[in-house]
Amino acid sequence: MEEEMVKADVLCVGGGIAGLMAAIRASELGAKVIVAEKGNALHSGRGRAGNDHFETYIPEVHGIDMEAWINELLRTAKGETLLSRDIFRAQFAKAFDIVKLWDNWGIPMKYKGQWEFAGHSFPGHAMTHIKYAGQMQKRVLVNQALDRGAEIMNRVMVFELLCDANGVIGAIGAHTRENKVIVFQAKAVILGTGKCSRLYPSLTPGWMFNDPHGGVQTGDGRAMAYRAGAQLQNVEMPERHIGPKYLTRFGQATWIGVLRDPQGKPVGTFASKPDRKYGDMIMEVNKLVAEQYTQSGKGPLYMDCTGMTEEDHEYMTYWMKHEGMVALLNHMQEEGMDLRKNPIEFATYPMRLGGQIVANAQAETTLKGLYAAGDEAFGDISAAATFGWVGGENAAKYAQEAEAPDVERGRAKIEEKKQLINQLHGREEGPDWEEANIALQQVMYDYVGSVRNEALLKQGLSHLHRLKEKAYTTMIARNPHELGRCLEVLNLLDIGELAFLMASDRKETRALHNRPDYPFTNPLLNQFHTVQDIDGKPVIQWREIGR
Amino acid sequence: MPPIIDANKCTGCGRCVDVCTEDVFYGSKEGEVPVVTYPRECVHFDCCIYECPVPGAIRLRIPLPAMLVYKPTDGE
Question: In chain B, which residues have their Cβ closer than 8 Å to the Cβ of A331?
Answer without folding.
Answer: 62, 67-68
